């Protein structure tokens, strides 16, 4: 039976190439394979099934999508591109630049996407004034997850500034807890770095260094201070952090071994799954000093051009992705918030509602920034070169001064 | 080697000529496949390494730029050094351990079949499967160190995987675990193939067990060493899954190897040109080691 | 790798190499049996430890694992993770478990292994028994092909598959495995046949037997041991391959390793380690079975073939 399916698909693909005949199916490449998120994607599948459009599932997990991007490249090169592909930030721009993506402008205009999607997201969803991707969600990365019982035991209040945060960490450490649960993987180090940089230099500095890649700002004393603060945080992490998966770091907070974890909103799922209640067993708040800012990454689905513009199935898929029902249903399980800013989110939990309100407020006030750690501030080459420096510094290979110099070199080599 | 395909040349009918060409015809699909899909692709990669390819292949030549960048990237130095350390230790330890195990198993052991299977089975598993188990086992917080301390050995330390200088050795441990059993099987096969008469004669001459092994047995295992070397070298160079599963190249980039470097520049960092350049350097290194070996091995038969 | 003397081939072929020789060097004089067995047991533990971690954790509830008991035996034994991994775990949008992918893998692996073994046998036969100018060079070139890093060939291979109309198909995937497996299968058979008495082939030729008839009637019947080695090798490599499977398979032909990776490597979801390990053991089951069943013939095949001079 499998063989027959494979055969049918080949014929279908051949037909597509040959005459542009429309097969009523979408093939979707994505990396959402964990229970909840995959189930949420099923909502989308059902929706399309209601319109008689088949869903061919092509999940490839690993490395936060890097594995899927490799597969995508092989697929496109072989002339067998999927219909729709989950993508992040600059990848969308890179593929649009190659001319591989379909233009969704007609659909966007009809459904008023320009109004409901903030500019910071449109920066990635559009290329040269053309809509090329449909945003699904917005994850924000500058969250702190705190153990409520430890906070209570030590009489700690939610820290509002860097100094208060350090004091809280100090108290937890003295009480014999791991102060900061952290996993030593490049992207986790960078997630921490993002928030520290925002808290230290403020939004303008973030814009200059991470997005505009301004050499002067990258080499400034403020940047050195950011690295110094990273070293301070390193002092609150246990010795065993290297290589630890983020969810094991979350488990440390869940099991009352560690007081705080700094991680994106997907960590919420771990807490909920362990039977914890937000506000009672664990607390969620913005990284101290970044209360008004939201650092985000946004999953979007890019539509690959099938020869003559957008196919009907692609249009149906894109429309379904931006439908309020799917945006709510999906983000409820995913831990992220809807990309559209005009929804009633009373179905989300406390942390989710807070996140959505802050997302909208940040979008209004120009405080919504793409996260460097998650590929929404600068291109992949620069991002990874920054990772190298941040991780090397966090592991004690560079002092702050060297790190600043290396950061400049990294940008110089890779920002071409 | 006797050659039976070249029979007396004369004017022959088509059928005969077809028959003479048949062996080459049978071989030709393989040769064609390898010519295109190995050597053709090597040529293609060589070309890319001189191009400005980023996300997808591009055909604009930019000279030696990719190579210049490559040698300015610190991680590349680390990757090359690591491959040398890893490759040397891995091959040496696998051979030594494989030989030791083969000799131990060759002592009329009860349950030899069972033990052999136990030593051999890791080869059957991919590191997608065993990576997490190894990662936990090596993690001082939950693995060996924690267990030993739990048993009361408070000062026990085994935190190599968290240590930039030592992490590469944990990769060796896991890699040896995977393939040493296979090497053992090769040596065991070699040992069993040695002519018992020679040994008997030597024993009668009063040779000690030790010198028997050193002077007679081990030299006879040379072909087994050679085969083991090919297999191990091939695995060392391709050790990608292992590193990704175990350390992801960390701490920092302390366990980066050329294979992970190449993958990350080609696919994650959208620097296909630099990735291709690293692939070319890697291939040249492989060729420098493997070609002389193949040449010396294959030449002998003449 | 020179041709071995005929006598040695016959000894090798008829004796059972999985049985210890009657006469051989013995360490016994220096090494008491107790120590010998202790050493062997110690190594058994080393090799079995990761398997223990996987099995033990696949049989406990997730709460026991996250509570920190990763090395301990389960307190509450459960088979639920196995059931989940096989039939209900979320791999893609549908909660299918690993079952369908298992079948996909079999559909791909069996033909790939069969074809590459047959092709390897034919190549080995031609290269040793129908020697021609340049044969050694060709063999060397085939063998060197084993050493190219697969990450490098991904993009050009995708292009070629597209041109051949094989992209995203099972035959395409089989083809890729064939191309990159040919070096090793040829190596095994070539070295094995090199030790096969050429006189027999010559005699058959004088009797008028043709190319294929000689292969079919004379060489193939005695190729059992090396075929086992080649099949084990190819089966292991192809079954465990992830890179090609992920890149060149289509949505309905993704192999087991890709599904396992989807199960294990989901980025931002809850990690059910017990289900992961159960899935991992399932993915490993066929190769493990092959090793256990054919392990005995494996050593024999190695002895008769690839490690011979």
From TrEMBL, chain A:
It is found in: Periplasm. Its main location: periplasm. Gene3D superfamilies: Periplasmic binding protein-like II (3.40.190.10). Residues 1-23 form the signal peptide. GO terms for cellular component: periplasmic space. InterPro entries: Bact_solute-bd_prot1, SBP. The keyword Transport applies. Keywords: Signal, Transport. The keyword Transport applies. It comes from the Bacteria. Belongs to the bacterial solute-binding protein 1 family. Part of a binding-protein-dependent transport system for a sugar. This is Probable sugar-binding periplasmic protein.
Automatic annotation (TrEMBL), chain B:
It comes from Citreimonas salinaria. Keywords: Cell membrane, Membrane, Transmembrane, Transmembrane helix, Transport. GO terms for cellular component: plasma membrane. It is found in: Cell membrane. The chain crosses the membrane at residues 25-50, 83-105, 117-137, 166-191, 272-295. One of its GO terms (biological process) is transmembrane transport. Pfam families: BPD_transp_1. Residues 80-295 form the ABC transmembrane type-1 domain. This is Carbohydrate ABC transporter membrane protein 1, CUT1 family. It is a multi-pass membrane protein. Belongs to the binding-protein-dependent transport system permease family. InterPro entries: ABC_transporter_permease, MetI-like, MetI-like_sf.
Automatic annotation (TrEMBL), chain C:
The chain crosses the membrane at residues 34-55, 101-122, 134-154, 174-193, 214-235, 275-299. Keywords: Membrane, Transmembrane, Transmembrane helix, Transport. PROSITE patterns: ABC_TM1 (PS50928). Gene3D superfamilies: MetI-like. The keyword Aminoacyl-tRNA synthetase does not apply. It holds the Pfam family BPD_transp_1. Its main location: membrane. One of its GO terms (cellular component) is plasma membrane. CDD domains: TM_PBP2 (cd06261). It comes from the Bacteria. It is a multi-pass membrane protein. It is found in: Cell membrane. PANTHER family: ABC TRANSPORTER PERMEASE PROTEIN, GLUCOSE IMPORT SYSTEM PERMEASE PROTEIN GLCU. Belongs to the binding-protein-dependent transport system permease family. This is Carbohydrate ABC transporter membrane protein 2, CUT1 family. It comes from Citreimonas salinaria. The lineage of its organism: Bacteria, Pseudomonadati, Pseudomonadota, Alphaproteobacteria, Rhodobacterales.
